[in-house]
Amino acid sequence: MTTTVHTRVAIVGAGPAGLLLAQLLRGAGIDSIVVDSRSRDEIEQTIRAGILEEGTVEALVAAGVDTHAHQVGMRHDGIELRFDGAGHRIDFADLVGRGVWLYPQHLVLQDLLATLVPAGADIRFETTAVRVDDVDGERPRVVVTGPDGAESEIAAEIVIGADGSHSVVRRAMSGSRAGLYREYPFAWFGILCEAPPSAPELIYSNSPNGFALISQRSDTVQRMYFQCDPDVDPASYTQEQLWEILQSRVPGTTLHEGPIFQRDMLQFRSFVARELRRGRVVLVGDAAHTVPPTGAKGMNLAIADVLLLHGALRAFLLENDPRLLDGYEQTALHRIWKAQNFSWWMTSMLHQMPEASDFDRMRQLGELRSVTDSRAGRTYLAEAYTGWPLELGG
Ligand code: PHB
Question: Would you call 365 helix, strand, or coil by DSSP?
Fold first, then answer.
């Protein structure tokens, strides 16, 4: 006999999207159960994205999340685009009157869990969603295995797939008809090092040797990335080699070097699921879409999905009004495809394609100049990077 527990909303995935949705539903008096295959420790410690749009931070605060973004995070009012040996500042504050916060995703997750767990939210760690049964029914069920390996199921009025790019919920919904995607012939090699910041703001650098991003974490820890072959083994470089590569990718600037204590690889992919909703099963965040990290949109897009969906779920579950839920996919896709375009554009403008000709490289510099030389060009970048206003449908 399989044990079945009942809840109003079953959320698969305790990432930023799943946890924020649980918090918003709790505020509306709607019960949910969140499951995640990882331990709390793993969720809270894994290094991921770093940039929050101002609107994302405001949404966390408005949702009652006890966030430290304003205290611990660093506000950035611009970025530097670097190419052809010179830096060009994109001044967000002047162009669009908004900025972003550098506040790493694992701290957002710590804030969410520190708010939800003491409040008694039902979050089940080390609990793996195996499949979703009765996807087309009135009461779909998430079949899970717990930390002890025992199988049970969660029956809900709504099932949410917030379970990342390898989503089990998406597979249950759409099978192998996953979605639309494109691959890229490169990846990012990421490092964390102990050093002071090399620049006041992030540097996105197009160099003849390939792209580099000089980001930050604190006054003493820095995050940097460089474009590399996707098959590279991160352990195969010495620290000296890594610094040599990084320095060569930001000509005109000297980086402050220090001990590198973590290295990782970020694979590049753009993806949008074919369906974001089927009956009572809905996808949010990376389960619904993946963007390459160049536009810093990933976590922000996940939060935007949830803000939209939360209103739709309130109307559906509390007032029996399905209209917003029926419009969720179309409204969410407007923002998702704008973010896909921006992330693809930043990626294509800043990276070197392995087969690029001299013509391609000179055209790319022309494209970068069209952006930095023109207020309209800089404004498009600033609007997209700091985040478009939320469209709430209806
Ligand atoms: C980061 O700091 O991890 C980061 C910042 C900006 C990006 C991607 C990653 O576009």
Answer: helix
pLDDT value at position 178? Answer: 81
Q: Is the pTM of this model over 0.70?
A: yes
Counting ligand 1 atoms within 8 A of each CB, the residue from 47, 51, 218, 344 with the most, and so the one to mutate, is 51
Q: Is the pLDDT of residue 1 over 80?
A: no
d(CA 245, CA 226): 8
Task: Please tell me the predicted confidence (pLDDT) of residue 361.
Answer: 96
Active-site residue set: 76, 204, 293, 297, 385
Does residue 87 carry a pLDDT above 90? yes
- Give the C-alpha separation, 284 to 18, whole Å: 8
What residues does ligand 1 touch, defined as CB less than 6 Å away?
49-51, 202, 213, 215, 223, 293-294, 296
Distance 225 CA to ligand 1 centre (A): 8
Question: CATH number of the domain at 3-73+102-181+269-351, out of 3.40.50.720, 3.50.50.60, 3.90.550.10, 3.40.190.10?
Answer: 3.50.50.60
* Cα 151 to ligand 1 centre (Å): 38
CA-proximal residue: ligand 1, atom 6 (nearest)? 296
C-alpha distances out from residue 310 to 184, 281, 284, 373, Å: 33, 14, 11, 41
Q: What 3-state DSSP class applies to 252?
A: coil
**DSSP code for 389:** P
pLDDT tens digits for 165-187? 999 999 999 987 789 999 999 99
